[in-house]
Structure formats: C-alpha cells, structure tokens
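Propose amino acids for all 376 sites.
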C-alpha cells in the first residue's frame, strides 16, 4: 500500500494499528522525542491550553450524556475518546478559517468559538442553538452523514475565487466515506485544487458496522491517492501528532498546494447515540483496550506530567473549575424561554414577505388554539 505523506511527516515515530502504519509523536506511556516536540513551536502555555480544552470537552460530553439520561435534552451523540482528534486539529486553525462539523464534533466547535450554552440550546431544540455567533466561521452541525462535505468544498472554492487566505476544514466519520457526497467533494476539491482539509475521524464504527464491512480498502487515507491529493494517516489519539498533521495540511492549502485527506485513527468509547446499545455489536475487550490503555486524555496527561506541566492537584483544580463553568452554562441555557414553532419562519429568508408572514400567522393561530383546547 502506498500512502502519500509530506516529507515532514516521515520524521514522526511509527506505530502499529491493525498491522498498518500510522504516525504518532507521543506513545501510550507519554514518552516522546524532544526534538520532534520542539519542532512544533508550541510553548508550555500552548501545551497546557491543549490539555485544558481536551479536559473541558470530556467533562462537557459526560454532563450532556447525563442530561439526556435525565430527559433534559434529546438524543445525544457522545464523543469521548475522540478529544485528541478534535482538539488537535481545531487548534491548528485560524479564527478566519471555515469549519464544517458534524453532530459529534462538539469538541472542535467549542475550541473555535461555539459557546457551551448554545450547544445545550441546540440539544434542547431551541432555534438559537443553530445560530452561529458573529465572527465565528462554523457552519451548523450536520446531521446527514457526509452532507456537509460538498458544501465545504464549495466554501473552499469561494475562498479561492476571492483570492482569500482562509482555508476550510470538514469533519466526518469513517461511515461517511461510504457516501457519494464524500467522493463528490473529494473529486471536486482535487480538480479545482481547493484550499480544504478533509478530516476523517476513523472511530472504527459506523453505528454498528465495523470499518472492514464498510470498505474493501485497508485504510481510508489511501483513497486520497485515487483523487490525486495528499493523504496522511495519523494516530488520532495523539493530540500533538494530530496538530502537526493538520497544521501541515492547512499550510499546504493556504499556499495553494491543494487539498489533503487526513485519517485520524481513534475510537468512540461510548454509543453511536443515546438510542444505541454498543454492547450488542462490540467486543468488550476491544472497548476496554481503547478506553483504558489508549485513552487520549490519559496519554497526554502522562506526557505533561513528565514535563512537569501537570500534577494531580492542578488536574483536580481544573476539573472543579470546568465543572462549575459548564454547570453555569447549562443553567443559563435551561432558563432560556423555549422557542415556538412559528418562530422558524423568521429564519427562512433574510427579509420576510407576505406569503411567509401569512404562513407564520396561521401556525401561530394553531398554537393558540391548541393551548386553548388543553386549558379547556
């Protein structure tokens, strides 16, 4: 198997996953090559910030999962186990770059400006939950598998036509590579040499379907060669390796050197969604290995401890701080007055017109009538 890898990437340490090579900078015990780490140009503050985002994302994910179990939000898709892939890649972006996330990419979203309280509003069905804050270039969460990939290619094309230096990154899982949208977006980006990074989090499972039942190819990254673009296969549980791979892909895109497909090999520790029971299709030994031995947060903690940047006391202090912050955000979101169905008409067009207003009024009247029936 031939995988196209940037020359810089050949300096990374090799690891093995299912007998196929990928690249990492930190091993499972937190050991690393100091020269390789120094080449990242990240100071101690950057490394600490990276960890804090990972920890905050893990705590947020746990609280949102508990909220669903308590009936306080709708169906939820947990992402624990994928923090390194999301945080490492998101931190390589500039504020002006564009992000096209899926429903499972909440870790990447909070790094680049989506407030936690907005995420909670989204999960509670508030219209404002999908309204991106000003000056945040993140598109609404995509539910349709792979549906955001052609849109992301279109965004990158717009940046190129305008001669802007902004790049686009789009996130998706291994299951999305079986969709036509993935192939159409990849082909379009390659033909027009677009400034885009296709970031695949291969978490091994498309709901209950393992990767070897999704594709005849051994890896996802080798699909890059078919479309004539760069490809990198990286240890998705190594936050620094992910950062390096993404940063190099972004730099190439910004320098008009075309798109890159990144396959970040990671693992979904929990269910596909809260309506799913993964014990029916996953081997517990596999889950235990990825949850205990290969947990991305634990690995980075070991790395930081060896560098004197993290202690148990500091970790506990951060956890307490983030817990309180997340709880405050959740409280504020839950105290927000719920939106009503008729308000959706306010978000159809920039300016309303008479037909739309008539439809809104009709729905509003039906809501009032229904309330009257209930109270009657």
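Proposal:
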């Amino acid at each position: 198997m031939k995988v196209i890898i940037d020359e810089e990437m050949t300096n990374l340490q090799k690891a093995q996953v299912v007998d196929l090579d990928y690249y990492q900078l930190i091993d499972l015990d937190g050991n690393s090559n100091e020269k390789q780490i120094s080449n990242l140009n990240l100071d101690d503050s950057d490394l600490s910030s990276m960890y804090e985002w990972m920890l905050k994302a893990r705590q947020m994910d746990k609280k949102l999962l508990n909220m669903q179990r308590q009936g306080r939000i709708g169906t939820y898709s947990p992402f624990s186990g994928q923090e390194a892939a999301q945080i490492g890649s998101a931190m390589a972006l500039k504020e002006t770059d564009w992000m096209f996330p899926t429903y499972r990419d909440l870790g990447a979203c909070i790094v680049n400006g989506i407030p936690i309280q907005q995420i909670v509003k989204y999960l509670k069905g508030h219209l404002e939950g999908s309204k991106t804050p000003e000056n945040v270039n993140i598109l609404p969460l995509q539910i349709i598998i792979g549906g955001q990939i052609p849109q992301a290619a279109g965004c990158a094309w717009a940046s190129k036509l305008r001669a802007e230096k902004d790049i686009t990154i789009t996130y998706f899982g291994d299951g999305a590579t079986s969709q036509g949208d993935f192939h159409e977006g990849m082909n379009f980006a390659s033909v027009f040499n677009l400034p885009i990074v296709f970031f695949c989090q291969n978490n091994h499972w498309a709901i209950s379907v393992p990767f070897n039942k999704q594709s005849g190819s051994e890896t996802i990254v080798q699909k890059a060669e078919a479309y004539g673009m760069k490809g990198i296969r990286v240890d998705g549980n190594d936050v620094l390796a992910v950062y390096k791979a993404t940063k190099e892909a972004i730099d190439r895109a910004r320098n008009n050197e075309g798109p890159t497909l990144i396959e970040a090999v990671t693992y979904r520790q929990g269910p596909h969604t809260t309506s799913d029971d993964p014990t029916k299709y996953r081997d517990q030994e596999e889950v235990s290995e990825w949850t205990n031995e290969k947990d991305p947060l634990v690995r980075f903690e070991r790395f930081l401890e060896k560098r004197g940047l993290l202690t148990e006391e500091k970790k506990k202090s951060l956890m307490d701080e983030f817990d309180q912050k997340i709880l405050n955000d959740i409280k504020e979101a839950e105290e927000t007055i719920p939106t009503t169905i008729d308000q959706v008409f306010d978000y159809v067009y920039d300016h309303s017109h008479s037909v739309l207003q008539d439809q809104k009024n009709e729905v509003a009247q039906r809501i009032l009538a229904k309330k009257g029936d209930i109270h009657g």
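The chain has two domains: 7-334, 341-375. The CA atoms of residues 17 and 244 lie 19 Å apart.
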